[in-house]
Amino acid sequence: xxxxxxxxxxxxxxxxxxxxxxxxxxxxxxxxxxxxxxxxxxxxxxxxxxxxxxxxxxxxxxxxxxxxxxxxxxxxxxxxxxxxxxxxxxxxxxxxxxxxxxxxxxxxxxxxxxxxxxxxxxxxxxxxxxxxxxxxxxxxxxxxxxxxxxxxxxxxxxxxxxxxxxxxxxxxxxxxxxxxxxxxxxxxxxxxxxxxxxxxxxxxxxxxxxxxxxxxxxxxxxxxxxxxxxxxxxxxxxxxxxxxxxxxxxxxxxxxxxxxxxxxxxxxxxxxxxxxxxxxxxxxxxxxxxxxxxxxxxxxxxxxxxxxxxxxxxxxxxxxxxxxxxxxxxxxxxxxxxxxxxxxxxxxxxxxxxxxxxxxxxxxxxxxxxxxxxxxxxxxxxxxxxxxxxxxxxxxxxxxxxxxxxxxxxxxxxxxxxxxxxxxxxxxxxxxxxxxxxxxxxxxxxxxxx
Length: 450
Description:
Blueprint: H1 20-95, H2 106-111, E1 116-122, E2 128-131, H3 145-148, E3 159-165, E4 172-181, E5 187-195, H4 197-205, E6 214-219, E7 224-227, H5 232-235, H6 248-251, E8 254-260, E9 267-274, E10 280-287, H7 288-291, H8 293-347, E11 351-355, E12 361-364, H9 366-372, H10 376-379, H11 392-404, E13 411-416, E14 422-433, E15 439-446
Antiparallel strand pairs: 1-2, 1-5, 3-4, 4-5, 6-7, 6-10, 8-9, 9-10, 11-12, 11-15, 13-14, 14-15
């Protein structure tokens, strides 16, 4: 037989037979998918952390507001108790100044003993004339603010002074006073209760404020009357007038702000409330770092988990890209081998045909075209066309023996050309199996007889 004059050109390098464009496309898909996953992951982390931080701070603000309201109610109750005592003293003194004695009012004083350091009567000249504490010699207190506040006019209100060290008691106290009038209504002195700020501070310590939370009670002059978490002396009596955002107290009776304290440098969420019945303002502050402590811990673990998964995503993407590269190289070698195999089959001086397990033609070399008259496009994907009438049983046997590997010497038989004529051939066959030993393809070599 004459050799086939057809040539098989190797495919250009830019065709996908060697996998190069496909590999580049897959690399882009893997890289883009990894980038999208990372963006979604970190976007979700950022959104969750933002939501959780906002929720935590909102909860803290509600908690601070509730604490401020509770403290305000307690301070109002304490001031009310002291005011009732002062009114009792005022009525008793004004009814009978000469016969007045604190012993007769000692029961009322003892009833609030935990709140009060001293109860006293100051005369029109500013001297202590009666006291629940022993006084060895006359003590002048006429220069104190809680006395001078009543001299000019009778406001009818209780005065809450700034914290001072008592001249009789020698202790820090907040002097609360009411004016005493003579029968003609002129100034006749003052009834004074020296309130112990430690009483309120013990109550503040019972509240769940955290290690750096604070409660402060100030007057409308912004001087601290009582405070939590600090020693009494160094802190009470100080002014908050220079504190940032403290001007909010003058704009609304109830509110909230966030500020770094000028007293201890702690950043706090501060809720404040002006008492309706007394010239006092309650401020409750929760330290931002303590409020967000659990959030910070959650953030650390969540970011660590996100970093782990990010590394995992990048690692998987890198492995996929590496594998795509390896498959590309393998594909290139297979494509080269396939081209070489095709060239060899096409150059064979024998009719070479391959069949799928269902007996459909998968390849048809040029010699088969010449020997049997069918062109390759006519038979590809079609049932094997060469079996003559009555030869199907024999064909099935030959195919089966080829699949079993027993057709080693070939078989003499006849095949039918496209024009219907028969030709004598020797048939040799075999099969191609996959890694699982499943038959994927069979081949038949048909050299002519003679």
